[in-house]
Write a structure and sequence with these properties.
The protein is of the alpha/beta class. It has 11 helices and 14 strands. The longest helix is centred in the C-terminal third of the chain and has 16 residues.
Length: 327
């Protein structure tokens, strides 16, 4: 963690257990400042820690990287979207700041940018003549994401799962495009979820690897963590739904496209919401937009405005000030 490493001995990282006594024990240590990540999980111990820390008048902060489900990030098991909101919130973009204010948050907000996006801006992997599709989980804390009445995409009718529907639309739209297609599996997914599409992708990578010899998806060895895909290649196009990885690819110089099964999902990603990442939600537009993106030069000006650079420096500077005033 770049922020923790910069703070050095002043910062202690904790992975909380589910035991309520952990919260009390931690606060008895009288920390100068308590920082906790957000969670959509109502039973999150981190949110309970934030709430108790504020109640005991400890300085508190959090950091939000994405725009989606902001009304649930600090809700816990209550109906109040700001139940566990800290004194200070670092956010990756101005869009997130606007939404927090709309929810009624009156604490301090600092638009810091995103530390990993800063890395993306300075890393230039070699180009790769392929189209990468970035999968996403079709289940979340709010419930399973499946075909609904408001979906404008329906896939082939063989699966009702959100990601499968979009994959099928993508595969059909690019069937004869003449460029290798690779499926990049989300780190929290199993490659076996996509066996039905194994023969249509030229490669399936990350948690599971498609071997050219056998054509069988094989799990990677236990304990093996491959280098992050973004350090390896710069595809001629990256396609996904609402994953933040689209922004990462765009900042590294690849054209990107969001294919939404229903238009209303554009608000799940702030870069898509402001138009910094193009999106389509109807079948007839998928192929034409892909062809246009393949023949155009990617631009990052809107993304650079949305996510300012220098995130770690901004976070460290403000936390240093908090530590000084707490002594």
């Amino acid at each position: 963690d770049p922020v923790a490493s910069e703070l050095g001995s002043e910062c202690k990282l904790y992975t909380p257990t589910s035991a309520p006594r952990m919260v009390a024990s931690f606060l008895r240590s009288k920390p100068d400042i308590v920082g906790v990540g957000t969670s959509e999980a109502g039973d999150s111990v981190g949110l309970r820690l934030l709430h108790e820390a504020r109640r005991k008048r400890n300085a508190t902060f959090s950091w939000i990287e994405g725009y989606s489900f902001l009304d649930k990030r600090f809700m816990g098991q209550t109906d109040n979207p700001l139940w566990a909101a800290p004194d200070l919130i670092f956010v990756a973009s101005e869009v997130i700041a606007w939404e927090l204010k709309r929810l009624g948050y009156t604490g301090e907000i600092i638009v810091s940018g995103h530390p990993f996006y800063d890395i993306c801006r300075t890393t230039h992997p070699p180009p790769s003549e392929e189209i990468v599709f970035l999968s996403e989980r079709s289940d979340c804390i709010s419930g399973d994401l499946k075909l609904d009445d408001d979906y404008t995409l329906h896939g082939r009718g063989t699966s009702g799962w959100r990601t499968h529907i979009v994959i099928e639309e993508f595969l059909d739209a690019t069937q004869d495009i003449g460029i290798p297609r690779r499926l990049q599996i989300h780190p929290k997914e199993a490659g076996f979820d996509y066996l039905a599409y194994e023969k249509e992708f030229d490669q399936i990578s990350d948690l599971f690897t498609a071997t050219a010899e056998s054509g069988i998806i094989q799990p990677r060895p236990p304990g093996h963590r491959p280098a992050h895909l973004l350090h390896l290649v710069r595809p001629c196009l990256a396609v996904g739904i609402t994953t933040n990885a689209l922004t990462e690819f765009a900042l590294r110089g690849s054209p990107v496209l969001s294919i939404l099964p229903r238009n209303e999902e554009y608000v799940w990603n702030d870069a898509i919401a402001v138009g910094a990442i193009p999106s389509v939600s109807h079948r007839k537009y998928i192929r034409p937009v892909i062809e246009r993106l393949l023949s155009s030069k990617p631009r990052t000006e809107v993304l650079d405005d949305l996510y300012p650079s220098g995130a770690v420096d901004k976070i460290i500077r403000r936390l240093d000030e908090c530590l000084l005033t707490s002594h």
